Amino acid sequence: MQNMISLDDGIGIDTMDTGRPLHDIGQRMTRAAVMLDSRMRTLTAQPEEGAATAEYAVVLVAATGFAAVLVALLKSDVIKTLLTNIVKKALSV
């Protein structure tokens, strides 16, 4: 039975037979760590690109809902009468 450690380049290191120099294995492990770091940075950077668009959409939906509530309030007779009285008082001064 062979124990294989798979690296990024698809070449495995046979842990039972370490015929390769230790320096070569260290370089391959460093390369694998660098590639993993690069992939992690790429994966964490991509969701940020669409975040502004999603946040913009949420703000637009909230603003539209708030506008709908204001329109409904301003159409009511009580609010119309209140606003009309305020304007009449302001103009009579």
UniProtKB/TrEMBL annotation:
Transmembrane segments: 56-74
Organism of derivation: Bifidobacterium anseris
Pfam families per record: DUF4244 (PF14029)
Source species, domain of life: Bacteria
UniProt cross-references to InterPro entries, sorted A to Z: DUF4244
Protein keywords: Membrane, Transmembrane, Transmembrane helix
Protein known as: DUF4244 domain-containing protein
Keyword Membrane found: yes
Lineage start: Bacteria, Bacillati, Actinomycetota, Actinomycetes, Bifidobacteriales
